[in-house]
Amino acid sequence: MCLAVPGLVIKLSGSQAEVDFGGGAVRAASVQFVPQAKIGDYVLVHAGCAIQIVRREDALETLNLLKEIYG
């Protein structure tokens, strides 16, 4: 099973971004599939690639559910 996780774009440099997944987890991700992404957007990240921009409310709901499941 594959899982895409929402995170907040906190830094952009060309087609690379730093994405904050909460709890201190910041990872690099490619934004070449969503070049319109900007700092402050929430994106779904799968296998190191942002694949979609998502609404803030949806991202936070998903992150809260994952926190409940995994602690």
Task: State the main characteristics.
five-stranded antiparallel beta sheet; globular; alpha+beta; SH3 type barrels; 42% strand; single chain; 71 residues
Low-confidence stretches: none
Number of strands: 5
Calculate the terminal CA-CA distance, rounded to whole Å. 20 Å
Question: What is the CATH architecture descriptor?
Answer: Roll
**Gross morphology:** globular
Count of the separate structural domains: 1
Under CATH, the topology is which? Answer: SH3 type barrels
- H/E element string? EEEEEH
The spatial strand order of the largest sheet comes to 3-2-1-4-5
Describe the SSE topology.
Elements: E1 5-13, E2 16-20, E3 26-30, E4 42-46, E5 49-54, H1 56-70
Antiparallel strand pairs: 1-2, 1-4, 2-3, 4-5
Report on the architecture of this protein:
The structure is a single chain. With 71 residues, the protein is of the alpha+beta class. The chain has one domain: SH3 type barrels. It is built from one helix and five strands. Strands 3-2-1-4-5 form a five-stranded antiparallel β-sheet, covered by helices on one side. It is globular, with a radius of gyration of 11 Å. The two termini are 20 Å apart.
Kindly summarize this structure in a few lines.
The chain is 21% helix and 42% strand. It has one helix at residues 56-70, and strands at 5-13, 16-20, 26-30, 42-46, 49-54.
